[in-house]
Amino acid sequence: MKNEKIMISSRDIDLSNALKDIDEHIAALNLGKKDSLHLRLIAEEILGMMNAMTGDYKAMLWFERNVVEASVNLTARTGSMDIDTKEGLISVSSTGKNASTKGFMAKIGDIIENGILNFENVMKLEQQYGMGYVGYGAASEMSADFAMSWSLAQYRNTLSAAKNDNSDAEEAWDELEKSVVASIAKDVTVGVKKETVEMKAIMDIKGE
Fold first, then answer.
1. What is the pLDDT of residues 70-88, one digit of tens each?
2. Can you give the pTM of this predicted structure?
3. From 12, 117, 159, 193, which residue has the greatest number of CB atoms within 10 Å?
């Protein structure tokens, strides 16, 4: 089952209408109360992540479900990422890292922004400010459909294998365990190609 798409943009300062539409669309999926709440929490986190990103965007958000899974889906068209703006956000930080990337969803937003930047610019930032900036994106890879793709499931597996021997991985693992989205969703996939972003968060239906 797939419902109609909800349009959102960076110009939507008041998201109350979007949240009302989200509630109506989730209700149409006929999920249990707890499953509906979890799906709404994921949608809220995605909206917050998009609004916290640098630059403008226009996006379509919709929900799907089958017998065992439900998902929040997003396709967004973003404005061109300005390397000077991105670098400025990092350089003003006392640590020389992107201080805005606190929390799991903020890091996904940062991964999206990195995907919009060309490869040379991302490598320039990494060399200048160190692995702390994009080290968590180590699970990112090229794919046939996207210039950059990322998966929560792969990221989780990577951290699980590294957390006992690497302090950065251990810190990222602790952050992951505190994330609302990571605790609900069994996978989150992100694909970026030029200025187009596709994102999907999938959760198991518990029937609750």
1. 999 999 888 655 555 545 4
2. 0.79
3. 159
